[in-house]
Every structure is written in structure tokens, then in C-alpha cells.
Amino acid sequence: MQKIESLAKRRGFIYPGSDIYGGLANSWDFGPLGVALKNNIRQEWWKWFVESREDVFGIDPAVIMNTKVWESSGHLKEFSDPLVEDKKTNERYRLDHLLEKEGINVSEMSEQDMVEKAQDTNLKSPKGNELAQPKQFNLMFKTNLGPIENDDSTVYLRPEIAQAMFVNFKNVFTTMRARLPFGIAACGKAFRNEITPGNYIYRTREFDLMEFEYFVQEKEWEKHFKYWLGQMHKWLEHCGINKKNLENYETPSSKLAHYSKRTVDIQYNFPFGTKELYGLAYRTDFDLRNHMEHSGEDLNYTDPNTNEKIVPHVIEPSFGLERTLLCVLLDVYAEDEQRIVIKFPRWMAPIKVAVFPLLQNDKKLVKHAREIFESILPCYVAQYDESGAIGRRYRRHDEIGTPLCITIDHDTLKDKSVTLRDRDSMKQIRVKIDDLLDTLGMYFDGKEFKKLVS
Ligand code: GAP
């Protein structure tokens, strides 16, 4: 983790938030390479789960919603974690996290079990002080809409996007003439006032979610649940994650979220423990029914074949963007005596191609290299780099995961060819400049490097 964190800072992926003011606890800013990485993952996710399917519709809903939404969804009452306070320092901790730190396995424990365990073991704060009785702490950030601060203007920053999908259920199915089963997807920020954020970007108070609600007939929920679990694993494979590092965790009923009847977490073997990466929940008709009751709006779906009115049930695959990014960084980071290399899948790499003139002070080479660089730039995110020995430039790009480097040398001027060097195999091939864009096209379509030339 330390290596990843320092590389991410050094090479412009992730900086500490509010850095020049000494930072802000557990807040992170994504730098030029970090934002490119996030955008690539998000766009690919959208392509994979929305654009390449005819049964999922994307929306981009407002972050701040009517407070009645959170009353109806149960978040105002239920979206909380058990908190314990150090009696001396007033510092607050999550009870389950403190028990875990003591080596107690809480995965099967209900909240009541945890409270009892804390009493039985005479649990102390990390500073060794007495703890007060556990309390429930609501994780939603509260703010006010408009200039007047009173109860009527209180609004919340969304802790999940899901509610916007339920609220827009009728809008989408009528305007898009959708038929069951179908999904509504969205990506965007979510906010949770976590009691104990930490482990770098793993648990933060603002984060990016990518999720969808898949509406199905009740009798078919198990079939769809199984299907989407398989699709989530396929997505992770596409992200380059080694499946050896993943496992499914069946959430015991005592620990299910208030809306869920079954949840399977896909866990990743992080350096700080095997922890949730993504979640897949069967939310039943809990949300639509609640919104129907509280809004008075008819959210029934009428089956066009049978004319039967039903409230659809929901399967919800939910993906944290920063957790995806952290997990990819950890999984594809490699080092040996020669180099550090981040083996991002080609589609994910923030910089796709680097272009080098062999020598910085050879005007002809530089001119040629710039021309080639500028011809590539409209098609691929590319970087021009002329400083330092060629080996050092390769290393620099290995460290940020650039899949291909192109070198323009003295032979280029004679044979109108350039050298392509592949990040993973470190092999090199010569390619005619006239064929360069076609070759890059094949490479980024996934063709094996050594098969690019016969
Ligand atoms: N709508 C369902 C939902 O929000 P969740 O399991 O609470 O379910 C979904 O969150 C995903 O969001 C998680 O699997 C994780 O990837 C990510 N996530 C949750 N809390 C997070 C946090 N504090 N920081 C970063 N990512 C988080």
C-alpha cells in the first residue's frame, strides 16, 4: 500500500486533499493521471453495462433530492453505524472496527452480539480508555437548501444513487417504453459521514459510485441474481483483476442492510484484509413499495401481455469506482530489479502511447517525432517525451502503465519506420509510419503484440 500510495502521489495519480493547508483527513484529489484512470474505468463500465445492452437505461440524476425520499427509503431512520466514544478524548470509533482490531471475527455478529462482546471483553478505545455505551450514528451529511437554515430547508447529500433510480422508475419505463426485466443505471458522487474512514482511498467520505437497479418479476429474482453476480466477476476479469484475489461473501441475515433480503459482497484480498469491493443486493420490492406509499404515485408495472399489475422486484449490482481503482493498482503493480511496472489493461491506461525522439538535441529527429506525436494525438491519449536516456524514458512510462512507446531514430529518416516497444513483454518491433495508426488500432483492439507484424 505504501508503495502504491507514494507512486500515485509522485506520478500524478492521487494527491492528499487540501494539500497546502496540511490536508483534510481522508480526502484525496485525483491528479491528471488519476482522473484519466477514473474516466476510463467509468466510461468502460458505462459501455459495458449500459450502452452495449438494450435492457439497461442510463440516467444522470441530481445529487440533492427531496428529503421525503430519504424518509421513505428508510435512510433517515436506518442508515447508521454503531459508534462508540472514548470517554476521555471524545474520539469516536465504529464498534465493529474496534472489535476486528482485537482479532474478533464480527462477520457473523449482529449489532446486539457486538455490544455484548464489547462488554464481555471489556473493550477499550485504541488509546486504552473506557468507552461509552454504543450509539447509532446516521451517516448522511446534512445541509440546507437556500439561505434559511431551518428544519424545512434541511436536505441530505445522497449516500447512494439507487433512490434516484426508484424515483425515476416510472419516468424511465414510460418514456423508454421499457419492458421487464430492465435496469436503470447511474454513476456519480455519493457521500457518507463515515465514522472511521481510512485505508487510503478504500473508505472515504465522498466517493464515486456506479450502480444500477435491475427490475424483475419476483419469481425470477434468483435467476437474475446469479446472472449479475457472474457479470460482475466478468467485469473484474476485464479490469485485469486476478480471480485468485477475489471471493464471494454471503452476508448473514443479521448484517443485511435494512432494504436487502440477500446480499453477496465480492471481496478483494487487500493488504489490510479481505474486504468488500462490490455489493450485489436483492432489494425485493422494498423501495418501490415505500415510494408508492409515501408519494401516492402509482409505481405499478402493467405486464403488456397479461395486463397484470405488479410491483417489480430489484437486483442491485453496486460498484465503487475508487475501490476498483485501488484494487486494480494493487493487482497489476509489479516490480523487479529492473523496473516498476503497472500493467493496466490497455483500455484502462491513462496514457496510451508515448513518443520519443532517440536524441533530444537532434533537430531532425525531434521534428519528425513531433509530427508523429501530433498525428497520433487526435486518436489516442499520447505523451511526447524527449528528456533523459531512452531507457529512463521507458522506465518512466512503465511506472505509469503506458502500454506502448514509439521511438524515432536515425533509421526512421531512411526507412520511414519507427520502433514500437511493448510495456509488458518489453519486446520491440519496427513498423512503417504509413501503417502506424492501423497498427495502433489493432494493438488497442487487443491483438497480441508479437502478432502485429508477420
Ligand atoms: N446502493 C447500494 C449501496 O450503496 P453499499 O454496499 O453501501 O451499497 C456500494 O455501497 C459500493 O460503494 C460498495 O460496494 C463499495 O464499492 C462502495 N463504497 C461504499 N462505501 C464507500 C466508502 N465510504 N468509500 C469508498 N467506497 C465506498
Task: Explain what you see.
The protein is an alpha+beta fold and 454 residues long. The chain folds into three domains: 2-79 and 139-330, Bira Bifunctional Protein, Domain 2 (BirA Bifunctional Protein, domain 2, 2-Layer Sandwich); 81-138, Herpes Virus-1; 343-453, Anticodon-binding domain (Rossmann fold), CATH 3.40.50.800. The chain is 33% helix and 26% strand. The protein has helices at 2-10, 32-51, 67-73, 75-78, 95-101, 111-120, 162-167, 169-175, 221-238, 286-295, 321-332, 363-376, 390-399, 410-415, 436-444; strands at residues 14-16, 28-30, 56-58, 80-85, 92-94, 135-138, 142-144, 154-156, 182-191, 206-216, 246-250, 262-270, 273-284, 301-302, 309-310, 313-320, 333-335, 340-342, 353-357, 382-384, 404-408, 417-422, 428-432. It has a seven-stranded mixed β-sheet. The longest helix has 20 residues, at 32-51. It starts with a helix and ends in a 10-residue tail after the last helix. The mean pLDDT is 95. Glycyl-adenosine-5'-phosphate is lined by residues 160, 162, 192, 194, 203-204, 207, 209, 211, 276-279, 316, 318, 320, 322-323.
